[in-house]
Specification:
Elements lengths: L1 E12 L5 H6 L1 E11 L2 H6 L8 H12 L6 H15 L5 E9 L9 E9 L2
Antiparallel strand pairs: 1-2, 2-3, 3-4
Length: 119
Amino acid sequence: MGKIIVQGIKLYAFHGCTSEEQMIGTSYEVDVIIETDLSNAEISDNLEETVDYVIIYDIVKEEMAIKSKLIEHVAKRIVNRLMKQFSAIEKIKVSVAKLHPPVNGIVNRVVAELEETRA
C-alpha cells in the first residue's frame, strides 16, 4: 500500500452562497491524498500501473470550474470523479480550501475535507 499525494493545487474559482462570490470569485487550494497498491508500479516503472497525478490535476481543475454554493459539494464531486476514473483507489481524501473567505474578520482559509474508502 502506498499514497499518491498532490498538494497545493492553486486555482481561481467562483464558488459561494452570495451572488458576489459567484461573480468575483476567489482563490482556492486543493489537496488530494490517494491510497492505493503501488507495488506493481514500484517494479515496472510503468505509468499505467499507478494513479497518474496529471489526470488528478485535470479532474480537480475541471470540477473546480463548475460553480457551486458550497465547497463541500465541490469536494464530493472531485472524490466521485477520481473514484470513477481510477478503480485502484482504495481510500481518498480531498480538501478544498477557500483562501481569505468573506467573513467579518481575518481568516486565512476555510477548508472542507472529505474522506472515502472504497467498499
